[in-house]
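Cross-check.
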Amino acid sequence: MEITKANDTQLGQQKIMAYQFNGTGLEGITNATLKDYPDLDQKALTAADKIELFISNTANVRSTASEISTALGIDPSNVTKTLIRQARRFVKLPKDGKEQPYGLVSNSVERG
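Predicted model, tokenized:
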């Protein structure tokens, strides 16, 4: 959670909580830190970092600009520009119909 409006507290504070589940549902809630969930530190991530993290967490380690844009809430033209400008990180994969998927250069090198 991040506080965006406040009367009696400081704005911009971040509160991280861990939700614990068992087989039937929510079991407990505890306080957590960025050390527990470092990927929550979004302020430190650039758009390229967010895109790389998103692609790396997809099932086939590939995604289209429109999928990335929808998931991350980044303008589609900015996603496409980032994918093209960051050629050392992202690679165009064979088209799937009209869609242009992208993957990670690091995965292409590992598999290549």
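The chain is about 30% helix and 20% strand. The helical segments are 47-56, 65-72, 76-85, 105-111. Passed to J.P. for a second look.
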